[in-house]
Design brief:
15% of the residues lie in helices and 36% in strands. By secondary structure, the protein is of the alpha+beta class. The strands form 2 sheets. It has a 4-stranded antiparallel β-sheet with strand order 1-2-3-7. Strands 4-5-6 form a 3-stranded antiparallel β-sheet. A hairpin with a 7-residue loop joins strand 5 and strand 6. The longest helix is centred in the last third of the chain and has 10 residues. The chain is globular, with a radius of gyration of 13 Å. Bound molecules: zinc ion. Zinc ion (ZN) binds next to loops.
Length: 106
């Protein structure tokens, strides 16, 4: 399984150096909007509950926690901290979304 080697909060977003050699930057607000916790997405239906316009443009993540060996949890400046971001989800975003900028070290 691909896991983060290093995680940094940069001026642009959360920068994750994956152990497969890719370094990907996830813009803060973009990542906040991907939150899939029960307060942001209705569990049964997958319906979005998050009011996107209420998320500040200048939101950042001030802190992160490792959740087990499979996910990260971020503390956002809008006080939201219940979202868990599995590595598999973060890697999927890196592959499929142009908002996430990745560089390869090799
Ligand atoms: Zn959430």
């Amino acid at each position: 399984m691909t896991v983060p080697d290093q995680i940094d909060m940069t001026g642009e977003g959360v920068r994750i150096a994956w152990d497969d050699g890719r370094t990907c930057t996830y813009p803060y607000r973009y990542l906040r909007l991907q939150c899939a916790c029960a307060a942001c997405v209705e569990e049964m239906t997958g319906r979005p509950l998050l009011n996107v316009s209420a998320v500040p443009d200048d939101i950042i993540a001030v802190e992160y926690l490792s959740v087990g060996k499979y996910a990260l949890q971020f503390l956002w400046t809008d006080s939201h901290d219940s979202g868990i971001y599995p590595f598999t989800m973060l890697l999927r975003l890196a592959e499929n979304d142009n908002a996430v900028v990745c560089e390869s070290s090799d």
